[in-house]
Design goal:
2 helices; alpha+beta; two-stranded antiparallel sheet; 48% helix; 95 residues
């Protein structure tokens, strides 16, 4: 049996693993379903960001810095992340 602190850390890593797997599976599902007519709704989404589509530019004459962050969310992402959280709760996650 693990001490309480290590058990919590193990559950945290498990949650992060499930969330990353959900994002990756959602991305693959959205890319594959884009060209399938009856599944194309899974690829519907929005892009949210700062400096998107063109990044904010800081020009210091010697150095140019560009800043930008983009978050792309599709229906497939939302469904797969929801499924990942559900699996985490079933596998002994925090309740």
């Amino acid at each position: 049996m693990l001490p309480a602190g290590k058990d919590d850390m193990k559950k945290d890593f498990l949650l992060v693993f499930y969330l990353i797997a959900g994002v990756i599976i959602g991305s693959l599902l959205a890319a594959v379903s884009l060209n399938v007519q009856w599944l194309s709704w899974l690829a519907f989404g929005i892009d949210i960001g700062f400096g998107y589509p063109s990044p904010a530019l800081l020009d210091l004459a010697v150095l140019q810095l560009s800043f930008g962050v983009r978050l792309s969310i599709t229906v497939a992402h939302v469904l797969s992340i929801g499924l990942a959280i559900s699996l985490y709760n079933r596998k002994g996650g925090r309740r």
